[in-house]
Amino acid sequence: MKSILYKYMSKFTSLTEEQQLTIANEIKIDEFKKGTTLLRQGDVPTKCYFVLKGCIRQYSVNENGKEVTSNFYTEEQAIAVFNNHKLDKSSEYTFACLEDSILVVGDLDMEQVMYTKHTQLEIMTRKMIEENFGKVQEEFATFIASTPEERLKTLLLKRPELIDRVPQHQLASYLGITPESLSRIKKRLEVDSK
C-alpha cells in the first residue's frame, strides 16, 4: 500500500528514497470497515485522509432529510474539509466508507509540525490541492451545463469504476437524478452495474 504513497511523493516532490521512507514511517495508515463513518455532518474535522484502497462517499442531509451525494473518493485521492471560512468550523458533509478501506490518516493538529519537519510535504500537499481544485472546477462547470445523460457519459469516461462500486441510488444522487431516471439512461446506453 505504501507504494501508492511513494508514487505520490515522487510525483510532487524531489524527496530522496530515504526521505520518503522516513515520512512514510511517520505517517499513520489505518484500515476501516465498510460502513465506517469518518466524519459526520456538523462535527468539526480533526483528521484528513488519503485513500490507498477503498471508496469513501461524501454526502449531506438537506433540510428535508434527504441524503445528497456530492462526491466519491477512491484510490490516490485526498479527503480534506476546507471550512476555515465558517465560524464554527463544522463540516457540511458526512464521509463514510462504502468499502473496506485503507487510508493514510493525518492529524490536523500535527499538520504544521510535519510541514516544518518535512518542508517538501507542504509543497506536495499544496500541489495536490491545486491539481484537485482544478479538476473540481472543471467537473463542476461541465456538470452544470450537462444533461443527465451527458453526466453519466462523463462519469463512464472519467470514473467508470464507480458504476460497479457504488449503489445505484447513491450514484443517481451524485448525478442529480432519480434512481429510476438513472436506470432508464443506463438502459439506453446499455451500461452494466450493481
TrEMBL record:
InterPro entries: cNMP-bd_dom, cNMP-bd_dom_sf, RmlC-like_jellyroll. Gene3D superfamilies: Jelly Rolls. Residues 11-57 form the Cyclic nucleotide-binding domain. Keywords: Activator. CDD domains: CAP_ED. SMART domains: cNMP. It holds the Pfam family cNMP_binding. This is CRP-like cAMP-binding protein. It comes from Psychrobacillus insolitus.
